[in-house]
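Section 4.2 – Deliverable D4.2 (structural model, holo form)

The reporting period included a commitment to supply a predicted holo structure for the target in complex with (R)-mevalonate. Inputs used:
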Amino acid sequence: MGALKVTATAPGVVKLFGEHAVVYGKPAIAMAINKGIKVTVEESRGNSLVIFAKDLEVKGVAIRVTGDSIEGSVINDGQLSKLASYALTALRIISGKYGGDLRGIRVIIESQLPIGAGLATSAAVSVATAAAYARLINVKLSKEDIAKVGHSVELTVQGAASPMDTAVSSIGGVMYIKPGVEFKRLSTSFKIPLVVGYVERELTTGELVKRVKALYDKYPKVIEDIMNSIGAITDEAVTALSKGDYVTLGELMNINQGLLEALGVSNHRLSSIIYMARKAGALGAKLSGGGGGGAMIALAPGVEDKVAVAVKLAGGEVILIDVDHEGVHVEDYS
Ligand code: MEV
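Output (structure tokens):
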């Protein structure tokens, strides 16, 4: 063992362009945000592995793992037990690959973001847990290595996931992602004045990815064209981002939203806050992430406050965010 207690903080992620299409190999642009998940991993007495999770609204969850059996007491929220399973899988993948005895480990998860709203909290938990536990057992991993472990965690827990969320949460900044081909950081000398809103979620990302696949299987030609168009939007957006061309970015966001609606991944409440944001002066607004409720982003230079009020009036919650340039950040207390 190296340190006795390590904390890792990993940012949440908003998707500027390309969610869902990225699952089919099309490019996407995502941005790490300055709010995320903090995971503390420490040695504790006894030979159980205990995971506690707590966030702003929910009291917490404690899961005790002894050998292969998991006992959990979930307080209030099934979402938290899901988060704990991402943490547990991250611990198992790291200890399976690099050694490390999971008995006598305590994990505490704290969130500055609503869990499961489409802001990549599961990716952030996977990344932060992997980074913290690797440091605890003295294994040096680059941010790219941590991103890969994070992606394996998501694949293990939810079956399908693109590498986008875990890469951006681990590395930080604004990234252009073309799975298997290219991951590059985009220069962001311009501010990206976004308002993030969210509503309750009806379906999980996994369920929505499955729905889109069913639609693809039924109408392959139609859906293939939609995916290609989303990819083309993302490529246009790279140029607009490099010039700080907000008007073009806004228009591209609106077209992207139309295509996400066509894929059936928005819903009434989410679309309502998107339309209200536009009405209040946002240059563009679209859902961000898996959809089915959950998060939206509005590009609102100079009218952030007005747009935030409109989103609230339409029944959404608002989070103020900025870009995070650092990605996962590890501190040890030994
Ligand atoms: C979820 O944040 C984004 C999706 O494209 C799924 C994925 O990329 O794994 C819907």
